[in-house]
Design brief:
By secondary structure, this protein is of the alpha+beta class. The chain has a domain of 134 residues: Gcn5-related N-acetyltransferase (GNAT) (Aminopeptidase, 3-Layer(aba) Sandwich). It is 31% helix and 30% strand. The chain has five helices and seven strands, in the order αβααβββαβαββ. Strands 1-2-3-4-5-7-6 form a seven-stranded mixed sheet. β2 and β3 form a beta hairpin. The N and C termini lie far apart (51 Å). Bound molecules: coenzyme A. The site of coenzyme A (COA) has 23 residues, from β4, α4, β5 and α5.
């Protein structure tokens, strides 16, 4: 079977987005590691930790996030995890407790086949339901796939951090994209978050 035919057949399978469970962690780790090694995201193989991220680290982080009512979602296609997305606090200080930043990663064999389009709005919806009011993404300026995806879901460019990264000897820019959730900053919060 040709790679194109295989891609078309695989990406035609039904897809669903759901909250992650602990047994999804190895699949998420494999996706993450691929993008660290080959990707354009904020991650960087050049300075990969000598002791790379392990299942246990992701499991602990996932539990921490769930305890804080931060959404952690996976996309499944044909029974396999093909992407994931999660939110973390924008900053740790309590004044920022209604703002989140997020990450989204799609399986390398399923890129540009609608997974991001399914995961990102689901994450936006979950964050809105949890009462968060602003959502941010830090994106490598050259990562047009991510910039376009975010723009398609209401994120706008609010800043360019110039020369903040050094990748393979080149200074890189990062863009900051933001979208309000629910009423955003137009009303006080409906209920009080402690973290
Ligand atoms: C960025 C990423 C999450 C997009 O997810 P995806 O599932 O490939 O995207 P989708 O197929 O749902 O496409 C949604 C939109 O994103 C944009 N997009 C996706 N891939 C693109 C590409 N290669 N070039 C330009 N725009 C692209 C398009 O606007 C697309 O809409 P369209 O289908 O009408 O063209 C995915 O490319 C990825 O995981 N990249 C590596 C990790 C990463 O960079 N994460 C983001 C860190 S901020």
């Amino acid at each position: 079977m040709t790679a194109t035919k295989e891609f078309l057949e695989t990406t035609a399978l039904p897809m669903a987005v759901r909250p992650s469970v602990e047994s999804d962690v190895p699949a998420m780790l494999a996706i993450y590691e691929h993008h660290v090694r080959h990707g354009q995201s904020e991650l960087d193989a050049e300075f990969m930790a000598p002791d790379p991220l392990r299942d246990d680290d992701i499991k602990r982080r996932r539990k921490n996030m769930l305890r804080r009512r931060l959404p952690h979602l996976v996309a499944e296609r044909g029974g396999a995890v093909v992407g994931y997305a999660y939110a973390v606090p924008f900053r740790k200080r309590p004044a920022y407790r209604y703002a989140v930043k997020h990450s989204i990663y799609v399986h390398p064999g399923h890129l540009h086949s609608g997974i991001g389009r399914a995961l990102l709005p689901a994450l936006i919806e979950s964050c809105t339901q949890e009462g968060f009011r602003q959502m941010f993404a830090y994106i490598d300026a050259s990562n047009m796939a991510s910039r376009n995806l975010h723009e398609a879901f209401g994120f706008r460019l609010v800043g360019v951090l110039e020369g903040v990264g050094l990748k393979y000897g080149q200074w890189t820019d990062t863009v900051l994209m933001q979208r309000p959730l629910g009423p955003g900053a137009s009303e006080p919060p409906a209920y009080s978050r402690t973290t």
